[in-house]
Design goal:
The structure is a homodimer. By secondary structure, chain A is an alpha/beta fold. Chain A has two domains: about 200 residues, Rossmann fold (3-Layer(aba) Sandwich); about 90 residues, Rossmann fold (3-Layer(aba) Sandwich), CATH 3.40.50.1100. Chain A is about 45% helix and about 15% strand. The first copy, chain A, has 13 helices and ten strands. The termini of chain A are far apart. Chains A and B meet through helix 12 of A and helix 12 of B.
Chain lengths: ~325, ~325
């Protein structure tokens, strides 16, 4: 498969029976506050509560029957694990999900609810990868990496495809960047459908490897400080970075305080639940990190899976 | 004005420029959990975050110019005050909102943000009514009662009008009942558009005057215990009860625990923010207080104004 608009359209047809076409919401208050027209693509309303359902579903349904029967495997502490487990269940094949031992219980339960095999491991990148390799050696399952996988990237691109189908005359498209799966799919879809659109990625300042790499023109892996945006703690993937260099116009960073404030603003104003990672693009707008005055801006709200017993503003006042 | 489908349609045309046409959302998970098809009319996405924008806007824009110029007044601790303040601002007339001194600060700020005159009073029904009467005597403003007002009732009915326009083949329509403004508008609209639809109201067991009155066939005012559903603490109005007796099929009650659990379920499953009062109908479904197996059920989610620093499940675990 080559990653282009045609392939993303094919992917969209493939996964359509299994995913939600999520709504695009607007807010006159946030438009007023930002001086722009904002169009929020609500992937918090997606199956499993995050855009990850798109890529994982495409990866699973792209396998030929013989390969599929051997099952799929991945390591994930978050939404990709649940997305892959769900997709495997839909296709009726085994899924092996390696999860670090400190994963949120709600995420472990979500994966288990789809009947996946859960393999617990130490909470380090090395332990995750070796546990995953071991499972694959034992089962011959196919690795579905959460972002370094073209089928996954193409699947994630279908969110932007739907967004630009619905709102064709956007000036900017914004999304967060962690490993780069969503960003690459978004950038390819958006730039192919509307060459003059700007694609802007946003990253927590505490995990700014993508921004640093983008400025340097080469892949830089950084030591991460803690960020509340748990979906964005990972380093950007090497194949993803190649696509980012080609299609993305800028990567800006935001503070932890801005992420929490943006999350709360979206909850209070739009009455929708988004997770911290999903608040990162609006944080850049609220912090005036980019100039959007008078522009039409599409924003991918990536997910809505939060622990309602531990909201980031609790105990802050 | 007489309260019928024709008048509600006229009202809808009148207020349309000033309100949101809110979306109807569905949830495959909640459908599965309930064994029915649920259609949620999302008035939490309405202007000021609640359906109250509809009735107050209609009441204000139904006044003739001379009357309107003298302003409007009401007493309200909650969403009706903000709705009336906003509607008055849109028409460019004064609004006087009597608010009990223990009103949530966020609600006082909302009213103030629309430029209304706020009159603080003791937090008793008698004090509210006498403060409001005093303001009216002084200013000649018109009283816009939050539910004992036909223009308000007709305005609230436009939510059901939109719901049944979008989902025509409903078997049941459910909404909470406090004073009865929403319930009366909903019942008249729904029964007129689809005579065989059942209209079921739901009330907190701790504030069950409407259910008791419905069973007794006469208006009963009860001493209220505390309910988390702050929008439903009031007694049902006398003119409202007449309409309820004619159009409503049943009124059921739910426990406080069920309301909190239902609110949390909707947040976690649908990723939308609803206030406790809005969770009351789904609480009745979750507690199996009504039989909806296999049915198509419309539910008005009445609002989404909550204090994110004081969620009902905080400190419960």
């Amino acid at each position: 498969m080559s990653l282009d608009l045609k392939s993303i359209r094919t992917v969209h047809e493939r996964i359509r029976p299994y995913i939600n076409r999520t709504p695009v919401l607007t807010s006159s208050r946030l438009d007023k506050a930002s001086g722009a027209s904002l169009f929020f693509k609500c992937e918090n309303f997606q199956k499993i509560g995050a855009f990850k359902a798109r890529g994982a579903t495409n990866a699973v349904f792209s396998l030929d029957d013989a390969t599929a029967l051997r099952g799929v495997a991945t390591h994930s502490s978050g939404n990709h694990g649940a997305a892959l487990a769900r997709a495997a269940k839909l296709r009726g094949i085994p899924a092996h999900i390696v999860m670090p031992s400190n994963s949120a219980k709600v995420k472990v339960r979500a994966v288990a609810s789809y009947g996946a095999q859960i393999v617990s491991c130490e909470p380090t990148e090395a332990a995750r990868e070796s546990a995953c390799a071991e499972v694959i050696a034992k089962t011959s399952a196919t690795l579905i990496h959460s972002f370094e996988n073209e089928d996954v990237i193409a699947g994630q691109g279908t969110a932007a495809l739907e967004l630009l189908e619905e709102v064709s005359d956007l000036d900017l498209v914004m999304c967060p960047v962690g490993g780069g799966g969503l960003l690459c799919g978004t950038a390819v879809a958006a730039k192919s459908m509307r060459p003059k659109v700007k694609v802007i990625a946003v990253e927590p300042a505490n995990a700014d490897d993508a921004a640093q790499s983008f400025r340097a023109g080469r892949l830089i892996h950084t030591e991460k400080k803690f960020t509340i945006a748990d979906g964005l703690r990972t380093n950007v993937g090497a194949p993803n970075f190649v696509i980012i260099q080609r299609y993305v116009d800028d990567i800006v960073t935001v503070s932890e305080e801005a992420i929490i404030a943006a999350m709360r603003t979206v909850w209070e104003t739009m009455k929708i639940i988004i997770e911290p990672s999903a608040a990162v693009p609006y944080a850049a707008i609220a912090e005036s990190k980019i100039n959007i005055g008078g522009k039409r801006v599409g924003i991918v709200l990536t997910g809505g899976n939060v622990d309602l017993d531990a909201l980031p503003w609790m105990g802050m006042r």
